[in-house]
Design a protein that fits this description.
The protein is of the alpha/beta class. It has helices spanning about 40-45, 60-70, 75-95, 110-125, 135-145, 155-170, 190-195, and strands spanning about 5, 15, 20, 25-30, 55-60, 100-105, 130-135, 180-185, 195-200. It is about 45% helix and about 20% strand.
Length: about 200
């Protein structure tokens, strides 16, 4: 992939331009600002309702879809905090079982969440890797409009402000982004669109 770069002590094996391969039992954090295309990528690589060969996929959008039939009539802003809390509790609990592989959706712009993910992976003895979707703020905003969920302007500005610093840390050392992260791969929107598999060794 033109422009793809990796950083870290341990790098994922790039067997072909459309595939990223990681060691067995890895936790892969798929990160990017809201609207970057994380859910779209996960939906394409791991369609809902299908088996993924043992790969566990955690995406808050999928949890939201499960809750919508019950809470859809209530403004989302009212139950969003509970949704996010439940999502992280479920993801961290899954990591505590000490078995992978897992792909975890997160914006990565919240330091306390990154610390929790790194701490839990270390406690469980799971290797941790990052995939960062680097998308300009205006492109991400367009993506939000397409999916019908627009992040509040103030919150979006915070995500966009923190993102360049996060990328700079990933270049220096992925563990500065999420403690214990062994590698970071940065993808543009075009590169993410050409990705066909996030694979894990047996």
């Amino acid at each position: 992939m033109t422009g793809l770069w990796t950083a870290g002590r341990t790098r994922p094996e790039l067997r072909e331009p459309t595939e990223l391969r990681y060691p067995a039992d890895s936790v892969v954090v798929l990160a990017g600002i809201p609207g970057a295309g994380k859910t779209t990528l996960l939906r394409r690589l791991y369609p809902v309702g299908r088996g993924y060969g043992g790969v566990r996929v955690y995406d808050s959008e999928r949890l939201r879809a499960q809750w919508m039939p019950v809470l859809g009539a209530v403004p989302y802003a009212w139950w969003r905090p509970l949704l996010h809390l439940t999502y992280y509790v479920l993801a961290l609990k899954a990591m505590s079982r000490g078995k992978g592989p897992m792909v975890l959706h997160d914006c990565a712009t919240r330091p306390w969440v990154r610390q929790l993910i790194g701490w839990r992976a270390k406690r469980a003895g799971l290797p941790l890797h990052l995939i960062l979707l680097d998308v300009p703020g205006d492109v991400a905003r367009d993506g939000q409009w397409v999916r019908g969920r627009v992040v509040r302007a103030g919150s979006m500005a915070t995500h966009c402000r923190r993102w360049p610093e996060l990328l700079a840390k990933a270049v220096d050392d992925p563990s500065h982004v999420v403690p214990g992260a062994a590698s970071a791969v940065v993808l543009t929107r075009r590169q993410a669109n050409h990705l066909t598999e996030i694979a894990f060794d047996d």
